[in-house]
C-alpha cells in the first residue's frame, strides 16, 4: 500500500503503508527510544497522537503482550523508517504489522524520519494526517481543516470501574489518568495493596477506601483538562502521602497553586538526563510528556524543586516543604527505559510508613 504523511505546514512525506488500512488525524510527536516500541505504542499517554520513531528499524524482535503497558493502542498512528516482517525473538507472538492491524492503527514506513524529527524540533509539534489509502492532496488538506479539539483523552484511557490488586503491604489508591502497567508492577513488587480508581473519583470516595497513600498516574493531554481531579487532590494532599508521575506531577502542581505550559516539542524517549538536586546525582530517565510545570509559578507555594532536566532546565520534580507530597515529571518505572530512579517508589513507601507510625503514636 502507498503511505502518506501530510503535515499542517503542507509538507508531504511519501512512503509505504502498513497496519490497518485507513486514515487518521492527530498531533505528530517523536520518540527517541532505541527499543521498547511495544511499550511505547501501548502507553495510554499517547492518546490522540501520531508517533514518529527516530530509531530506524522497528519490529526486529517482534511483539509480546507481556511488554504491553495497557490492553490496547491509544495512539492514532505510527511512522517509522523501516519495519521488520521476520522478527527474531523467542518471546515474539506477532509482527509489528500484525499488532497495528489487529488494533486498527494506521502505519507508514519508508519515509525520512530524521527529516520529520528535525522539522518537529524546529517548528514544534503539529497536526498531521497519516494514511495508507489513495487520497489526493486536496482530500488531505480538507481533513486538516476540520476544527481541532484535544478532547478529554484522560476520560478515554482511564479505568471506568474501581478494581483491587491485593497485597500485604501499604494500602495505596492509584488514581488512573492513563496508568502504565509498570507503575502497578512497581507497587506490587513492594507488596502494596492497590486499589485503582477512575480519574474523576471524588475525595470522599477515595477516603472511603482508607488508603495509606495516594498515587497520581501518568496520562495523556493537558493537565488543565481534568479540573475535577484537581479539586479532589487539593483535599487528598492535606491528609495522605501523595506521589505523582508525569501528568500526575502536573496535576499536583496545579492543585498546589502552580501553573503548567505546553512545550515546543516535549520530551519523549528513554535517554533523558535529569539532575536530582537533593542527591547531587544525575540519572538517565524515560519520559513522555508535552506539558511542563512553570518554575516561576511554584516559587512561593511552599514547594522545593528536586529535579531539573539537564537538556533544557525544565522542572522534573517537586516536593512540598511541610507535607509528605512529591512528584516527578519523568517515569521512574521506566518501560521502555532505565530503572535508575525506581528509588522514588521506595521514598513513597517510606512516606507512608512514617505516616502510619505517626498515627499509631
TrEMBL record:
Active site: 246 (nucleophile), 331, 333
Segments of this protein annotated with the region CPSase: 1-170
Database matches in Pfam families: CPSase_sm_chain, GATase
Catalyzed reactions per annotation: hydrogencarbonate + L-glutamine + 2 ATP + H2O = carbamoyl phosphate + L-glutamate + 2 ADP + phosphate + 2 H(+); L-glutamine + H2O = L-glutamate + NH4(+)
MF term (GO), any: carbamoyl-phosphate synthase (glutamine-hydrolyzing) activity
SMART domains from the UniProt entry: CPSase_sm_chain (SM01097)
Protein origin, superkingdom: Bacteria
Keywords: Amino-acid biosynthesis, Arginine biosynthesis, ATP-binding, Glutamine amidotransferase, Ligase, Nucleotide-binding, Pyrimidine biosynthesis
Ranges where the Carbamoyl-phosphate synthase small subunit N-terminal domain occurs: 1-131
Listed PANTHER family: CARBAMOYL-PHOSPHATE SYNTHASE SMALL CHAIN, MULTIFUNCTIONAL TRYPTOPHAN BIOSYNTHESIS PROTEIN-RELATED
Function: Small subunit of the glutamine-dependent carbamoyl phosphate synthetase (CPSase). CPSase catalyzes the formation of carbamoyl phosphate from the ammonia moiety of glutamine, carbonate, and phosphate donated by ATP, constituting the first step of 2 biosynthetic pathways, one leading to arginine and/or urea and the other to pyrimidine nucleotides. The small subunit (glutamine amidotransferase) binds and cleaves glutamine to supply the large subunit with the substrate ammonia.
Family: Belongs to the CarA family.
Protein name: Carbamoyl phosphate synthase small chain
Species name: Clostridium bovifaecis
Amino acid at each position: 500500500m502507498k503511505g502518506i504523511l501530510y503535515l499542517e505546514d503542507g509538507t508531504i512525506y511519501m512512503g509505504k503503508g502498513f497496519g490497518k488500512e485507513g486514515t487518521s488525524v492527530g498531533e505528530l510527536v517523536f520518540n527517541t527510544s532505541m527499543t521498547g516500541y511495544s511499550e511505547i505504542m501501548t502507553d495510554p499517554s499517547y492518546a490522540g497522537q501520531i508517533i514518529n520513531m527516530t530509531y530506524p528499524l522497528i519490529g526486529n524482535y517482534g511483539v509480546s503482550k507481556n511488554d504491553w503497558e495497557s490492553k490496547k493502542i491509544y495512539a492514532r498512528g505510527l511512522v517509522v523508517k523501516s519495519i521488520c516482517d521476520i522478527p527474531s525473538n523467542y518471546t515474539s507472538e506477532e509482527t509489528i504489522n500484525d499488532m497495528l492491524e489487529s488494533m486498527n492503527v494506521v502505519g507508514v514506513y519508508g519515509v525520512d524520519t530524521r527529516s520529520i524529527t528535525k522539522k518537529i524540533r524546529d517548528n514544534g509539534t503539529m497536526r498531521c494526517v497519516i494514511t495508507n489509502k489513495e487520497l489526493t492532496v486536496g482530500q488531505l488538506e480538507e481533513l486538516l481543516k476540520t476544527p481541532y479539539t484535544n478532547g478529554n483523552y484522560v476520560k478515554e484511557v482511564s479505568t471506568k470501574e474501581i478494581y483491587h490488586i491485593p497485597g500485604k503491604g501499604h494500602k495505596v489508591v492509584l488514581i488512573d489518568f492513563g496508568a502504565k502497567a509498570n507503575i502497578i508492577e512497581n507497587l506490587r513488587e513492594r507488596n502494596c495493596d492497590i486499589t485503582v480508581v477512575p480519574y474523576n473519583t471524588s475525595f470522599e470516595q477515595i477516603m472511603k477506601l482508607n488508603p495509606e497513600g495516594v498515587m497520581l498516574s501518568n496520562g495523556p493531554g493537558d493537565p488543565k483538562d481534568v479540573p475535577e481531579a484537581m479539586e479532589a487532590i487539593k483535599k487528598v494532599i492535606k491528609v495522605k502521602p501523595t506521589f505523582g508521575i508525569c501528568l500526575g506531577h502536573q496535576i499536583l502542581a496545579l492543585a498546589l497553586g502552580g501553573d503548567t505550559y505546553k512545550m515546543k516539542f516535549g520530551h519523549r524517549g528513554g535517554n533523558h538526563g535529569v539532575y536530582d538536586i537533593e542527591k547531587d546525582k544525575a540519572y538517565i530517565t524515560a519520559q513522555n510528556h508535552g506539558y511542563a510545570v512553570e518554575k516561576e509559578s511554584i516559587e512561593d507555594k511552599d514547594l522545593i524543586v528536586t529535579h531539573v532536566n539537564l537538556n533544557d532546565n525544565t522542572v522534573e520534580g517537586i516536593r512540598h516543604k511541610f507535607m509528605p507530597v512529591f512528584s516527578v515529571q519523568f517515569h521512574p518505572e521506566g518501560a521502555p527505559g532505565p530503572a535508575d530512579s525506581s528509588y522514588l517508589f521506595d521514598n513513597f513507601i517510606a512516606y507512608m510508613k512514617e505516616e502510619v507510625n505517626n498515627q499509631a503514636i
